[in-house]
Structure formats: structure tokens, C-alpha cells
């Protein structure tokens, strides 16, 4: 009688798979980039809204950022004092406009700091606001809009606003 | 006396499941990897209240060089950002996008110490191009 030799079972060599897995992990760890995808939302006025944008001086709060200084309705103020100052005004009139004007020489971060302070009154889904009001209407006029105003009315609204105060 | 032969089996680490792990990792990274339209290194200003940008937002990049020069870049949100000459070119590119989509979001990614004049110029050009939805990119402010 002829004895049959036991044959070895065929198998796929998987020993190197661990090396592949770790190589992939290291590759993706090295190449992964954590990019910023969040920021402050800002609505620019469209040309259709131009006619309705004129706001009476007494109906708005003027915030003037120049360099490291800040004037709110012509009063020098710290950034942290803006919301307490706005509270009684915005509680009385929720639609009150806040006009944020930044000098061309001021650093961009300073404008963001003030704008962020105003946005705090709205809060976010994760961090609800602790203020009883919301700054809904924030206008950020550009230099060219101010120039247009000067050409039409002959005065700079941000210079004449504080005259006599 | 009968000698009992001991059959020694070799110690092995089971590696059969490693293939599954490798493919699981590949699929995970393929799904989670986001195509970044701009990789310019910029020192963003800090803010507390931050909102996630829309998917496929166009991007305007202002990066300040060591000599004070500002480099402008633009991306339509699909292609990687490319350098442009200045705000005039950005206005032109933006008007092409707003022609098709009035609500298109534009993200401004700029160094925190750039003079506001430069940002103002960009905002003015975007407004003239018909853009209304803007996002000023920031990093999270620590308490």
C-alpha cells in the first residue's frame, strides 16, 4: 500500500502587513495638516441695499478704532467695556446699529478683537451668550464708502461726529 | 525504556488580521482627509466666537513677508490657491464666482499684524464684485 504524504496548506504571507500598517500611520501622521476652518462671519451690503443704509447719527453707536485706542461714541474705552456700555441702549432698541470704523493704520487684529467682542453678544451653539441683548446690526464701512460720503455731503462723518465733545 | 519524543511547535505572532487593520486605516484616512485649498503659513488673529466656514468657500490669502511685503493669493474653493497681483485681480476672480452664485462665501485668511487698510481694500473689492457673505478666518482665543 502506498502512503500519502501530508501536503502543506497554501497560505498568503501576512507577516509584513504590520510593517505596512505602521508605515501608513506614520505617513498620514506626517502629512496631515490641521487647518483653521473657523472664523467671524460678516455680511457685506449688496448694491440693492445701498438706499436703505443711511443711518441717523443718534440712532447708531459709533465705534472708532485707531491704533491701540478705542472711542465708543467719542468716549475712550477698553474693549471689555463695550458690551456693558451697549446693554441699556440695545435692550431699549434691539435694532440699533453699531458702526465699527477702523483706521487704515490700525492692525487687523485690533479690528477683529472689537468685532469679536460685539459678536460675543450673539454667542454660538456651543457657547450661548450671557448677555440679555444681541448686536444684530453691525456696519463696517470701508474707506471708499467714507470717501463717497465725503464727496456727497462734504464732511467726514467720523471726524464731525465727535466735534465739541 | 521508551523515549517520548516531544514535538515542539514554533511560537508565532498571529499576523493574519494585519491586512484588515491596514485597509481599515487606509479607508479611515481616505474618508477623513480634507483637500486643503491653501497651505500658506499665516499668523491668524484670535477670536472667541467662531463659525465653521461653508464647504467649497473661495479663499483670499494675505500673507506678510519678513520685509513687510504683502503676498496675495486666491482660490475658488476647488483649486489650490495661486498668487495674484493684488486686490484688482481678486475682484475680477470674485466677480466670476458671484456671477454664478450670489451667496458664495469668501474667506479672508490674513496675518494679524497686517495694516487694516489692506483688509479694507479687499473687502471693498469683494463688495464691488457682488460678494455679500464673508468669513474672517481666526484661531481660537485662549481664556
Automatic annotation (TrEMBL), chain A:
Its main location: membrane. The chain crosses the membrane at residues 20-37. It is a single-pass membrane protein; Single-pass type II membrane protein. Pfam families: ExbD. Keywords: Cell membrane, Membrane, Protein transport, Transmembrane, Transmembrane helix, Transport. It comes from the Bacteria. InterPro entries: ExbD (IPR003400). It is found in: Cell membrane. GO terms for biological process: protein transport. GO terms for cellular component: plasma membrane. One of its GO terms (molecular function) is transmembrane transporter activity. PANTHER family: BIOPOLYMER TRANSPORT PROTEIN EXBD-RELATED, EXBD MEMBRANE COMPONENT OF PMF-DRIVEN MACROMOLECULE IMPORT SYSTEM. Belongs to the ExbD/TolR family. This is Biopolymer transporter ExbD.
Automatic annotation (TrEMBL), chain B:
It is a single-pass membrane protein; Single-pass type II membrane protein. Pfam families: ExbD (PF02472). It is found in: Cell membrane. InterPro entries: ExbD. GO terms for biological process: protein transport. GO terms for molecular function: transmembrane transporter activity. Signal peptide: none annotated. One of its GO terms (cellular component) is plasma membrane. Its main location: membrane. It comes from the Bacteria. Keywords: Cell membrane, Membrane, Protein transport, Transmembrane, Transmembrane helix, Transport. This is Biopolymer transporter ExbD. The lineage of its organism: Bacteria, Pseudomonadati, Acidobacteriota, Candidatus Polarisedimenticolia, Candidatus Polarisedimenticolales.
